[in-house]
Amino acid sequence: MSETNLFRAAMLGTGLALALMGGAMAGEYNLTVDPVEIDTGEFSRSGIGFNGASPGPVLRFREGEEVTINVTNNLDQDTSVHWHGLILPYQQDGVPKISYPGIAPGETFTYRFPITQSGTYWFHSHSGFQEPDGAYGAIVIEPKDREPFRYDREYVVQLADAHPHSGDRIMRNLKMMPDYYNRRQRTLLDFFDDAGEKGVSAALRDRGEWGDMRMMPTDVEDLQGFTPLINGKGPEQNWTGLFKPGERVRLRFINSSAMTYFDIRIPGLKLTVVQADGSNVQPVPVDEFRIAVAETYDVIVQPVENRPYTIFGESMGRTAYARGTLAPQAGMAAAVPSLRKPPLLTMGDMAGHGGMDHGSMDHAAMGHGSAPQGEVDHAAMGHGSAPKKETDHAAMGHGSAPKGEVDHAAMGHGSAPKREIDHAAMGHGSAPKGEVDHAAMGHGPAPSGKMDHAAMGHGMMASGSPEPSDPFYAPGSGLRPAAANGGKFLSYADLKAQKPLYEHRAATREIELELTGNMERYIWSINGVKYADAEPIRLTYGERVRFKFVNTTMMTHPMHLHGMWSILDNGSGKWNPVKHVISVAPATTVYMETEVDAPGQWAFHCHLSYHADSGMFRKVVVEGGPDTASAASGMKSGG
Amino acid sequence: MSTQTRLRACALAFAIASVPSLALAAGDHTHGHGKGPDIGQPGEAADVSRTIGITMRDNLYEPESLKVREGETVRFTIINRGEFVHEFNIGTATMHAAHQEEMMGMMESGVLEPDRINHAKMDHGGHGMKHDDPNSVLLEPGQSGEIIWRFPDHATLEFACNVPGHYQSGMVGRIHLSH
Prior knowledge:
The complex is a heterodimer of chains A (639) and B (179).
Chain A lengths: L2 H10 L13 E14 L4 E7 L7 E5 L3 E8 L8 E3 L23 E7 L4 E6 L11 E7 L10 E10 L4 H10 L11 H11 L1 H14 L13 E4 L8 E4 L6 E7 L6 E4 L5 E6 L2 E8 L2 E3 L4 E6 L7 E7 L5 E7 L35 H4 L71 H4 L11 H10 L46 E10 L4 E4 L10 E4 L3 E8 L5 E5 L4 E3 L9 E2 L1 E4 L4 E7 L4 E7 L2 H5 L3 E7 L4 H7 L5
Parallel strand pairs in A: 1-4, 3-8, 9-12, 11-19, 20-23, 22-30
Antiparallel strand pairs in A: 1-2, 4-6, 5-7, 7-8, 9-10, 12-17, 13-16, 13-18, 14-15, 14-17, 18-19, 20-21, 23-28, 24-27, 24-29, 25-26, 25-28, 29-30
Helix pairs in contact in A: 3-4
Chain B lengths: L2 H10 L9 H4 L15 E2 L7 E8 L2 E3 L3 E4 L3 E8 L5 E6 L1 H16 L3 E2 L2 E2 L1 H6 L11 E4 L4 E7 L6 E4 L11 E7 L1
Parallel strand pairs in B: 2-5, 4-12
Antiparallel strand pairs in B: 1-10, 2-3, 5-10, 6-9, 6-11, 7-8, 11-12
């Protein structure tokens, strides 16, 4: 048990009452949703929190407990609380308009549900942009049985990307100018550099392609200018967890960011990953791992030296870092690494566009995918270096704007007023589903033209090569991470369930979900249809559905299904891990399966706050099965 | 150490270890790890003063630590009641760290799978794939094994499972040597 977390819970959880009664465990908890001040050390702003602070308290439950949680809304607007990753009756899930109406100002809503699982989770408002504005907290559930690992102390390490602007303002700005918060746009000077390196025509072609995508190589983070927080503390405020040398310390990493993925490492320490999204995995020692928005990873570290260690979390786009410290005494600090070179998206990450946008152009044949990872030399990618590729770009069906003119603004990188080109009409987002032949589109930039993650994963892992490729990134992707110390970087392919929750069986049907977007107008959607215009996804109780995510955008989307587990197909068969967030990188296809065992209606969405709000969201309706009354009291087995 | 004891240990372990090195039985105490510290040596059945049962589960030992006397010869009977492969290995922390590298290699080359040992591959593997050191047994779920070990007078020893990630998860215990 962590002293600091207890302290945090005690300090922040002033309204928190825990009543354990005899017999069946039952706890009663009180949460208030409050206007709060947030001080990141870099800026202060008003925001939203729980029990008077952001982040809110760490709620500690026990597996098998019946919890009663009274949530009082002290705001002047509606609110809600969603228990992220918890398996519970849908009326308790806390999503306005799907689970319940929400909580009006001044009202108290009482949640009641049994705790049927254990591990690290979190909670947050599911109303508007209250979560990016600070309305999040952690959940730790003690298991009934002994865990398959041991530790001497533990800490919650909850990450967030606090922004000086309110969520509403950010959304307005993104809608008005999607690159409003992209400070890393390539400039005219970059163009001259490119031209110097690659020759003017190659540089122009390159620019032309990116312009057609309405994307830029720097589009890794569409929201920049935030301050990463660890447990509410900015890098300078240096959240610190104490240890005694030699102790095993369990760190419960939770990414409660609105938009930001982090690459986490603790220089000098091996991180043994023992849990992902609350479920135990076969332990994997790594040097670094990437945490998608809304995921959790529990790692065990064993600092043996009597010195401080820096917890370092670089944002995926390398525009900012979270920083905390593990130390034998308060007030100590270790060296803080500098940010690594920012990744740039490559044509490999763009492969999802092939065929849709570019008509006859065969990206795979052009060899885009074969570029060495992380390198951004488009010329070397076969784009323009070979004279035989001196095809007229415009003739390739790219679009409308005559290429070859040095109108920088028209190339679509700048903050210039957006052009009249209707991106949707270019086939990006609105391609009617069904007409799109994915295989033919070459989502697979891979030489085979087809990307089967499950199949790829295994061959590569088994090869035992020192740096096997990661099947969860497109070949040639600029996003694929590498450990700072040259060691092991966790891949989704490494996650194997410690104790599979469900029997392994074939799926009863497949549902394809194309992740689509129009960066130009900041519309994000599924199958080209945004939430407001979409029919719910209807599932039948008892079936096992295989979801096929096809990411045709150039951004990474953390997909979150409420109420039921997402079984990631990473090729581990019976050991495929259960998760609640499945991150899908650009130009990749990822499969997950769901045992449809929870009646009612549920939310299913990209967990990037501004993507979810702009339409990458669906309602899922589970038809049939036990009636909801008995479902509420009986719950599912298996926990 | 008698060859008979050795064979018995092998039989109990379903012959996961291939033919043990006779050089070790002849009294070479380095156990294939080079010139390491004195961790003791394989013991004689006749010298056994007591038997300690070790149960391996996912991912832990029962008991969690051991007390033995300096110079004592102990028979360990080890059973794997978990659902994954586990090891019982007597050594120093440094030796375990080195062995973890070897076992990572076994995992990557497919010799070791989470719940089984690929004997065919093991027999054809190079150095480090044999897993035949006398200070350890590597057991599949449900299997049993035995080690007779004579402890040295002075040493800082741990018993540990070096299957990737298990040691770091806490599947390691101190061996307290007393006078």
